[in-house]
Structures are given as structure tokens and as C-alpha cells.
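Late entry, evening session. Most of the bench is empty. Finally got around to the prediction I had been postponing all week. Sequence below, unchanged from the version circulated by S.P.
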Amino acid sequence: MANRKIPALEEVKKNYVRLALESGNYSSIARHAGIDRTTLNRWIQEYEDEVRGQMEDPASAVLSIEPTKEELKAKYEQAMKLLGEKELEVAMLRNLLKKSQSRP
């Protein structure tokens, strides 16, 4: 069978190589990835030059997926608003249920 490289899989490998090179703790990164350390070492040998080049290029820096404080605050406020609406809806339904049960 031909050895074809799947682009999405190659990107995943490169991301783990980047993490390993940045942290220096190859064993921990391999454990996190669920792979053997020798597998990670093979990936590092294969992609190290390319990944180091990308690490030095600020244009290719990995964007943080951490939400900002403002985003978290907005999500919290939205969740609290929805919670309030649901609590009001439950109270109204309970009141309606009481009224319907008290009728003969």
C-alpha cells in the first residue's frame, strides 16, 4: 500500500512536535497525545526543521483559543439571563399547575 500522507494528520503531528519543542518535556507531551515517546521522537525528527521555522515566524504563530475576560463575562451574563428566564418559566408553570389542580 502506498504511503500517502493525510494533511490533517500531518498538522496534528506538527502541533505535537511544536508543543514538545516549546515545553522540552517530550514524555509528558507523548503521554498527553496518547502515543509512545519513540513515536513522538520520530515525528520530531521528521518535522523539527519545518516546525522550528514556523516557530520563528511570528506570522505563523498559533492563535490562543483561550477566551478573553470580556468574552467570559458576556457568556456568563447570557447564561444568567437564560437561567432567570427559565426560572420564571418554571414558576409560571407551577402556578398554572396549582390553579388547574384546584379547579373541581
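Two things to note before I forget:
The radius of gyration is 26 Å.
DSSP finds four helices and no strands in the chain.
Will write this up properly tomorrow.
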